[in-house]
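question for whoever is on the cluster today: can someone run the full assembly for these? four chains, 1289 residues total. i dont have access anymore since they changed the login thing
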Amino acid sequence: MTTQTNTENDAAASADSASTILEVKNLSTQFRTRAGLVKAVDDVSFSVKEREVLAIVGESGCGKSVTALSVMGLIPTPPGEIVGGEIMFGGKDLLQASDDEMQEIRGGQMGMIFQEPMTSLNPVMTIGKQVAEPLRIHLGLSKAAARVRAGELLSLVGLPDPLEKLDDYPHQMSGGQRQRVMIAMAMSCEPKLLIADEATTALDVTVQAQVLELLIRVAEEFGTALIIITHNLGIVARYAHRVNVMYAGKIRESGTAADVYKNPGHPYTAGLLSSVPSLMQSTSGKLQSIEGEIPDLTDLPSGCAFGPRCPYVQDRCRLEDPPLENVGDDHISACWESAQFRGTT
Amino acid sequence: MVKTSDSVEPSSVDTARIQLPYWLAGLLRHRLSVIGGSFILFVAFLAVFAPLLTGFEPTEVDPPNRFLRPSFEHLLGTDYLGRDQFTRLIYGARISMVVGIFSVVIASFIGVPLGLTAAHFGGWTDSAIMRFIDAKLSIPGLILAMMLLLMLGGGVLTVSIALGINLSSAQARLIRSQALSVKEREYFHAARAMGTSNWRLILLHMMPNSIQPVIVQASLGVGFAILGEASLSFLGLGVTPPTPTWGNMLSLAFQYMRSAPYLLFAPGVAILLLVMSFSFVGDGLRDVLDPRLKGKI
Amino acid sequence: MTRYLLSRLGQSIVVFLIVSVVVFFAVRTVPQDPIYALVGEDAEGYTPAQIETIREEFGLNRPLPVQYMSWVGDALKGDWGLSFQNKLPVIDLIKKRIPFTLTLAVGAMAISIVFGISTGVIAALTRNSKWDMMATGSAMFAVAVPEFWLALMMILFFGVTLGILPVYGAVLIWDDPIEGFRLLIMPAFALGIGGAATLMRQSRSSMLETMGEDYIRTARSKGVKEKTVIIVHALRNSLLPVVTILGLRIGRVLGGAVVIETMFSWPGLGQLAVSSLQKADYPVIMAIVMFSSAAVIIANFVTDIAYSYIDPRIRYA
Amino acid sequence: MSMTTSTRSVLDIRDLQVHFPVNRGVLFIKNKGAVKAVDGVNLSIAPGETVGLVGESGSGKTTVGRAIIGLVKPTGGVIEFEGNNVLEMNSAALRQFRRQVGVVFQDPYGSLNPRMTAERIISEPLVAHHLFNSKQERRARVQELLEIVGLNAGMASRYPHEFSGGQRQRIGIARAIASDPTLIILDEPVSALDVSIQAQIINLLDELQDRLQIAYLFIAHDLSVVRHASDRVAVMYLGKLMEVAPRDAVYDNPLHPYTKALLSAVPVPDPEIEKKRERTILTGDIPSPTNPPSGCVFRTRCPIADEACAESIPELREVTPGQHVACLKV
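^ ran it for u. tokens below:
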């Protein structure tokens, strides 16, 4: 997109490179569908520091999950394909890594938890075997040792009767328990990075709180950095250090969570925040909503993809897609009108 | 495709709609369906215009000219009575096509109402219908058909009925399972909550949304019925001689295998190609009507 | 699981009872009075009094429900009545033929399973490659080919032209393994190849579907090697629907055996079925239908057991 | 026991019970116990009022809604609509009742028949209740409804798949208001929608209520949305009501320990508030409704439960004016 922003990112990264564990540069991932070519992720750059909690937030089709799957090397090909960019992790570009190298990284140094607790575990394999699998692969533990460690991990994630659970099958557990098992499994080799893709979306509120607290606690204990992918702005506010706001395949705004919420740099972020009714005080009358519909990814509007829904849209927005630019300290946003928009907010 | 919150496939359910131009267009893009469909039309043409396409009668015996090898006059040779094989083949096509289509129509008329009734009313009605279908399925199809023919006597219609009854249980099971899933859909609940009558529920909501796999199954079923008729005729139990069918032609060819092996080929290849054509069209329909299975089968 | 299996067993018994009722009444409501099957079409040489005596002798003068009850009662005791054709006990005829049909069915199923599942899985894993094309293409062919024509072609080629395989008769494999096997090859192949095609298509689509499941992605996210993903995670799950198909295949095989046994002069139940049907030998027909239906029901029950063994969701239900 | 405050309510549910039998047995089905999906619920809705019904999975909130519209058969209790018990109505009265009660479901993809055009979908209740009998009248009504819900009248001939999720939900709403109902059951009407679309639909529902004076039973699990949309809020857990009160009382001064925990579990989209909020994280899972705990159903996860809670079932009682709580410790 713009070299200017990239060099800035590079500079920021190299200044603090000792603690940056993941750096994604200009990542683009596409899917060939019957409806046409979908640019699910388009020129996305961001980085994650050690022990950091990064949130990627956005609505359906924004590309947040595809970003995560690209990092993990789990894009199903075909129909998907990573068409450009770099994913630097542990001094290596993952996009150049061989299958064997990727297998070593996945589950060893980088783990992932998925949205659907009901379908993400193998239904015909015991919990114990599934949790032991990465231990045997990456740490080379014996069958017996892996089983012992799996039991410890299950107790670490707070499952009652962990040793009995080893021989249970997934269908015997509740959704919350399965997500705990997923955490135990993903964290078993104490990875440097864990990606939680809508990991608590399918859970009830009280269970969601338990699982999130657990995730944060275990990550802190193991010194693991987290990427939380969610559409829930509350979760981001509670747990994230930094936040990337995505819309139609691109990062539109990025900054510290405190900064982005207090002083959004993009009309989309602002609209999103004001669309959520408040829990803390009663409101009546109209909610501020974003008009229009989420665009069809096979047929994006020209210029800024948010343009057609944006209350601040100008002619320029319809012609040129704005680059990410600094709007504050460690806070970037892609909006031609950000100065004007922020003045009016 | 990735199953995530932001699935990038724009609403894959979309293509599930049924509109004539749409599925026809879909089928026409499906190469094998086009080949299959063309062959079916070709056979139908031969069957319909059989009397115009040959100078012989299918049952016309000509003892001096028995066991003639294929020639210009007798494209596929003659059999032990000197009957022209090509003539018998295209007249036989009539039986195959008619039995194939009749059977499936009969199967659908039995199976679809049974399946819908079982699904809609559930409980004892469902159990009774399903156990009955299980019982029927537990009797090997060909044996059942043979028993029915014993009761009903041979002939095009009875063979179609026997094979139709056979195929009906698959239809009933299929539409029942589809209808059961429709019953769980919210549009069905919404219609019930509005006080829509049972008839409207079944005819407007349940049937149109569960009929697709039945259509696919029907086109495959035509193939099964053609095979079934051929097997029965081969055993001398289906359509009886002298009416030519591909099955009884092969039965005769079997008896004279050593003296006239060339008689073995044409009817067999004809059955094979016609059945394959129907299965191509069925696969095409499945791809068009049920995008979930696209490219999987 | 016990409860699940017990309920399936209960269902099987109900189904079997329905079959017996349907078969009995279907056969007895045939337009033709069964007595003529016994005494011949025009009852030549019989006086009406004699016919009545025979009717009584075979119990054909009692009300149908009574006849049904006594038929079931006797059948359970192993007495299936006498064949109309040769007045031999039906059960002896059946007993003699079961081993042959069983050998043929097992052979055919083995061919279906071995060829079907392996090619299906390979085709799925090499999707859109030339292996996949070949496997899918031959399956399309094999599903559509009439089994009796395939048998004809094999007889013509291997039996008549090359003369390397016998085309006629049967020897039980435990009486003469080599000859038994040589005799079995062609009929088993003709009977099994359609099933192989069905299983191939089913296991291919099932494998493809499984490979798209969330837990496969989970396994990959753990760094499991692709080979292990397939063998450990995908195979067992994708075999579940295939097992269901297997149970249903038995019925098709027994049906197909009717034609194949007739062609190869294989002295099994299928051949007996054809000859009894031609002679309207009701006691034998009923016994054959009941035995084959029982075989299918038992096969389905065994499938349920196998299924619950593979799938813990049923085992622990 | 009755907590009906208004004598003039549209809907009055008293001691509603929906128990699903658990069938066991091989040949002969034996009835062994029941899932108590809804167990003794009392709730009333005044004309034009919105009552929010919140709860987690297994709470029975959806079953309450389904019992009202007749999709499940209650095993006990009374559902009174404008003074008449729905469960004892003859078919003519039931028909009238169904005309006056609309329903909007959660799934914008599953709630519209994919084989019907928007016009046919919206005119379904009109056909079912013999309203607007001529074709032209019906067509005009459908176009009017489409415009009311913010869609273009020209979209009438489209099929559901040609609409986006938000638009489909608008069609569902048009169908629900087509027969001029006095009450609409909203079963998670926005939870399947994206945040930015949610707000649009909530606004539409608000607007329709003002305009048409419809009462809503708003069933949802999203507590922020319920606060915005409701006048009163009822909190359910394992088939029972825990707390029923005007919304400000529930949110600003929750009395039941479950309500408190539920509210504190919801993260608020404001990092500054989040830093200061105290939270109660409940331990354990929601018990299975097949085998609910004795006494108070919440006691197994309750931070203040003691032996007494295992012994007696707390009744819903008015603790402060208008605020009903089912807890022995309050």
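summary bc i know u wont read the tokens: The longest helix of chain D spans residues 195-212. The first strand of chain D starts at residue 11 and ends at 24.
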